Amino acid sequence: MGRSADNPLKDAFTSLGRVTVLFLDTMRSIFAKRFRVRDLVEQLHFIGVKSQSVVLLTGAFTGMVMCAQFYIQFHKVKMDSAVMSVVSVAMAR
Predict the structure, then answer these.
(1) 55-62, Cβ contacts within 8 angstroms, sequence gap of 24 or more
(2) How far apart are CA 80 and CA 71, in angstroms?
(3) pLDDT at 3 over 80
(4) Taking the complete model, does pTM exceed 0.70, yes or no?
(5) How many CA atoms lie within 13 A of 78 on its CB side?
(6) Is 78 a member of any domain?
(7) Residue 40 and residue 16 share a domain
(8) Dihedral of CA 71/74/75/80: which sign?
(9) How many domains does the chain have?
(10) pLDDT by residue (tens digit) across 47-78?
(11) Rounded mean pLDDT of 3-23?
(12) Range of the domain at 76
């Protein structure tokens, strides 16, 4: 839905109402009596195991870019040997 620039107060209250409805629906779902363990396990498997390849690929490319950038900067001050240590600590955090 598009926002109207002529009435920002109406837009603010509309957004507040939508966030309130989302919050109430979330609370209702959390405290509902029925809890499906099978769905929870399936979702945890999908989020954890099935997304591991994306996480590893992203981490690998991030590490490669950091190595390239740090090498360029550290080479200027003759600290080439510290690149891997700095990248390892940065990636671990």
Answers:
(1) 59/91, 62/91
(2) 6
(3) no
(4) no
(5) 0
(6) yes
(7) yes
(8) negative
(9) 2
(10) 999 999 999 999 999 999 999 999 999 999 99
(11) 89
(12) 52-93
